[in-house]
Amino acid sequence: MTTPLVVDTTVDAPHDRLVRAKDASRSIAQLTSSDKARALESIASALEGASERILAGNALDIERGRAEGLSDALIDRLRLDAQRVSGLASAVREVATLPDPIGQVIGGHRMPNGIALEHVRVPFGVVGAIYEARPNVTVDIAALALRAGNAVVLRGGSAARESNTVLIDVMRRALTDAGIDPEAVQTVDDFGRDGAKALMQGRGFVDVLVPRGSAALIETVVTESTVPVIETGAGVVHIVLDETAPLEWARDIVVNAKVQRPSVCNAVETLLVLRQAAPQLIPVVASALQSEGVAIHGDDMVAGLVSNVIPATDDDWAAEYLGLEIAIKVVDTLDEALEHIRRYSTGHTESIITTDSRSAERFLAEVDSAVVMVNASTRFTDGAEFGFGAEVGISTQKLHSRGPMGLAELTSTKWLARGSGQTRG
Amino acid sequence: MTTPLVVDTTVDAPHDRLVRAKDASRSIAQLTSSDKARALESIASALEGASERILAGNALDIERGRAEGLSDALIDRLRLDAQRVSGLASAVREVATLPDPIGQVIGGHRMPNGIALEHVRVPFGVVGAIYEARPNVTVDIAALALRAGNAVVLRGGSAARESNTVLIDVMRRALTDAGIDPEAVQTVDDFGRDGAKALMQGRGFVDVLVPRGSAALIETVVTESTVPVIETGAGVVHIVLDETAPLEWARDIVVNAKVQRPSVCNAVETLLVLRQAAPQLIPVVASALQSEGVAIHGDDMVAGLVSNVIPATDDDWAAEYLGLEIAIKVVDTLDEALEHIRRYSTGHTESIITTDSRSAERFLAEVDSAVVMVNASTRFTDGAEFGFGAEVGISTQKLHSRGPMGLAELTSTKWLARGSGQTRG
């Protein structure tokens, strides 16, 4: 027995994990709502009970991350502590309380010939996820997938591999304890790049793949996958101010949208101000931003109205800063603002501050983004704010789901037809 | 000027067609329901008026097809005559009368802070279609896409290229006559393989791609596309007969499902009969099939009950005959039937004939197909039968749409948020 590892790798190829997930998905799909809630409670308790083990795994990741020179920001995203582990467990319990989308009847009617047609929500089957540093995604996605009756195959960032190994082991044991097939939670992390590839190419075994992370990660997944993908994309988010915008709304909304949590996809990145409104609005809004530590990239007119403006380049209009920076541009007309948004928006969220109802309705109709707002902060594009109770991600694609995704977005549908001998004439 | 063709190709690359479709999609998206109906009426009249030109183009395709040795069946699919052209125009007029899905409010609520949230149907933008021989698909898909407010980029089969060139020209002129941007209907046929490639790789310009045709075509599109695809797949459709199946229902439904139109995806291909029911049901059902000219591939038990049975191989269980052939297998239990379906079904439609409600409900719950039936012919899986008024195709994927697709499946959604200065706390 000199080659046990080689034998193991042969027997347990990444594709086998997909097969096992698919097999398990059949029993998971048939679980009742309370079975699923019980499974999640078991996972939550197990996470709490395994806190020390989880933190020990995480400490190894942090240590390796430091040795490999990861930035402090990345180390922070990677780090778990007792409170964060307890937060993970609470999040799982919250998911357990969400209404079960499975079995919901979303349509149907009796056909003229008497066949009763019912359109019902069913699980996808196997949900794949490819993501980066934060180990909490491992638990979040698994809990959401299970709540919606799916098995899940996870591929986390290599920076979090020790943390994820422990988290997945804890969840699988918890499922076993609850009498539920542990094969419903799989990882392909141990196969490195081959694992990701198997997941992306797992047609017939993986029903949907959700990438979460950088634009580069998402681009890779979209390009290499033969499995259907839901893009959860970047947010080059715009706010437009016109000459009817109340000064306080403009200032408060822009500051909130930029500063309240600058590192997330629904934070504003570019401010477009109608020329007529610029002299009144820009100095006030810019000074409010600057007093919050926001660096301003602006065009010539902005530079003429505000001090300490960094000249904006084309790169700034396309930038997702994800930090305390903003680009400000003066435009001549609403048309020019709409054209700028068409060119640079990633289709996530845009908002206009105006009291002119014609401009408001035109903006709502013509901006082709997942969420289009009037007189509200772009930070409201969020599953919890939308009342979904949990968020799988924010889809910037147009297929299947657009905008904040709740549990229902992790389901498919099927048609049930109950007849009494009908044939087609 | 010795190289005009080269210059033309450079200026008018396939990608330019996508750009023009995307540009046009913006005005098409803003058309009212009656504008769109008017555009379709203009197309219908133009098709009627251009009947001779269309038939002349079609005659060239038929001639070339014969010279290239196309089968009679393919020639028949390719062929247009005056009646079929008139049928094309009628189909366009029918699409014009369908309720407009755009602007439909499918959800929404007032957020606790007062923001009014509305979830509305919007056009995809640009719908791509890659399909094979039948030129009527060119008109059908364009009409459906336009009705739902989309621009369309078409890539038809090379066998129908003269017919499609004329049809597209007629539709574009009709749009111009109706005062609507003709760039909303594009073809990439003239670029051959490069055209298909541009369409499949047109991320950011093509919002969804619908392949219609053979399993090989669909496989290619799924594999090569970076644009989201809706698979309209093959149908290896099963009917299960158990020991409680009324003899007449079993016979009538199986014969109808096989014989009424054998060349389509919702025709049954495999019959699974519970062993206990086999002696009673198989002779009657098989003889009814044989009297309709259906060849029977069967296992040993079937061969013992019926004459002229061709021994079935594994290939038969996976076969989509699309003709007057059927595979019949005897299974010991419902579990074995479900396992066989899991292995060989393409997830299109399956039906069980039974009066045992436990078996019926188990079948409905456990079969993972777009449409699952009890006591009804699989031929009912159809957009018109389901009351959609038109059919884009039958999706066998789980993302976005599953089963027969109507106009609403050619739309996306967006969220509109109307506030009065709200910021996030």
UniProtKB/TrEMBL annotation, chains A, B:
Enzyme Commission number(s): 1.2.1.41
Keywords: Amino-acid biosynthesis, Cytoplasm, NADP, Oxidoreductase, Proline biosynthesis
Pfam families from the UniProt entry: Aldedh (PF00171)
Compartment(s) where it occurs, according to its Swiss-Prot or TrEMBL record: Cytoplasm
Reactions catalysed: L-glutamate 5-semialdehyde + phosphate + NADP(+) = L-glutamyl 5-phosphate + NADPH + H(+)
Any one GO cellular component localisation term in the record: cytoplasm
The keyword Oxidoreductase is assigned to this record: yes
Residues of the Aldehyde dehydrogenase domain: 20-291
Signal peptide region: none
Family annotation (SUPFAM superfamilies): ALDH-like
Gene3D superfamilies, per database record: Aldehyde Dehydrogenase, Chain A, domain 1, Aldehyde Dehydrogenase, Chain A, domain 2
Keyword NAD belongs to the record: no
GO BP field: L-proline biosynthetic process
Coarse class of the protein's main subcellular location: cytoplasm
Metabolic or biological pathway: Amino-acid biosynthesis; L-proline biosynthesis; L-glutamate 5-semialdehyde from L-glutamate: step 2/2
Function: Catalyzes the NADPH-dependent reduction of L-glutamate 5-phosphate into L-glutamate 5-semialdehyde and phosphate. The product spontaneously undergoes cyclization to form 1-pyrroline-5-carboxylate.
PANTHER family: DELTA-1-PYRROLINE-5-CARBOXYLATE SYNTHASE, GLUTAMATE SEMIALDEHYDE DEHYDROGENASE
Family to which the UniProt record says this protein belongs: Belongs to the gamma-glutamyl phosphate reductase family.
Protein name as annotated: Gamma-glutamyl phosphate reductase
Naturally occurring in which organism (per UniProt): Microbacterium esteraromaticum
